[in-house]
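SAMPLE LOG
Freezer: B-3
Tube label: C17
Construct: single chain, 88 aa
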Amino acid sequence: MIKYTFIFEYKGGTYIRQIPAPDLKEAIGIWANLTGPEIPKFNKKKKLQLLKAIEFYEPDQIDGMENVWHLHLDMNKTFGYLNVVATL
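STRUCTURE (predicted):
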C-alpha cells in the first residue's frame, strides 16, 4: 500500500487527509467518498458535484516533481483545488 496525502482547498479552508491505497486512482475515489462532513456547508449536492468532477478530471503530475499531482475541480460555480502527494 502507498500512503497518499490529500490537501484540499475549498472556500477558504484547507482540509488534509491521508489515504492508504494501492494506486492513485483508487486513493482519489476513496478520498472523494470520505470527503464532506468535515467541510462547513458541504452538502449532498456539493458531494455529488465533487464525485462527478473526479470522474471528469484527471490528476496532472506537477512538472519537476515525483509523486505529486494536482486537480482543479469545477463543482458548478465553486472550485476546489486538490494536491496529492504519495509517500512511498
